[in-house]
Amino acid sequence: MDVLYFAWVRERIGLPKETVTTDAETVAGLVAELRAREDRYDLAFSDLSALRVAVDQELTDFDASIKGAREVAFFPPMTGG
Amino acid sequence: MRVVVQDTPFDFGAEAEAFANGRHDMGAIVTFTGVVRDFGNGGLDAMEIEHYPGMTQKALEAIAAEAVTRWSLGDVLVIHRYGRMEPGEKIMMVATAAPHRKDAFEAAEYLMDYLKSRAPFWKKEHATTGETNWVAAKDEDEDALTRW
Question: Does the beta-carbon distance from A7 to B50 stay under 8 Å?
C-alpha cells in the first residue's frame, strides 16, 4: 500500500510518500512497524494525539482496519480556512 | 453546489456576483472569505498551504453536501486555494444561497467550522526572518464542531 505523509510529519520523516508492504491489520499495527524502522519514524509517531490518519482518503482512527487498503495517510490536525 | 480547489488566485467579487446573480427564489446570499493575516508587525512573508490531492475535493464536497441536508439551501460554493500566498491574499471563500438568511448564515458558519478542522489543508507561516512554523490547530476549532 501507499503511505503518505503531510505537513510536519512529511518533513520529519523526510519523504512525502512510500510504498510499504505490511502484515499489520490496523493503523496502530502499521504505526508500530514504522516506528521500529528508524529514529525519524519513531520521533514522528511519538505522540499519536498530535496526529490524524486517513485510510483510502477517509478520516478514521488508529484502531481502524487497513486490510485491503490502498492508501494510508498521516498528518497533523488540519488547519484550513 | 460547486467546490473548487486551486493554486491560483480567485476573483472574490466576480465569484460572489456570479453566485448571487439570477436567483429569483433565494432571499439571502451569505459570503465569507478568509484572508492571509500578517502577524501585525509586517513579520509574515508568506503563508504556504499544503493539501492532500485526491482527498481534499472529496472532503469539501462531503461537508458541502452535509450542509445542504441540514439547512434549506438553494446553492453552495466553496473555493479553497493551496500553495504560497502573501498577506492580504484571499485563501478561500464560501457562499450560501437560501430562501431565508438564518439558513444562509448558519450553513456558512457550519461550512467554515468543518472545513477548518476536517478538510486536509495545513498552513505553514514563512516569517521575513526566514523562520518557518506549521500553524497548530486550536482546541477551540475542534470544540466549534460540537455545536452542530
Answer: yes
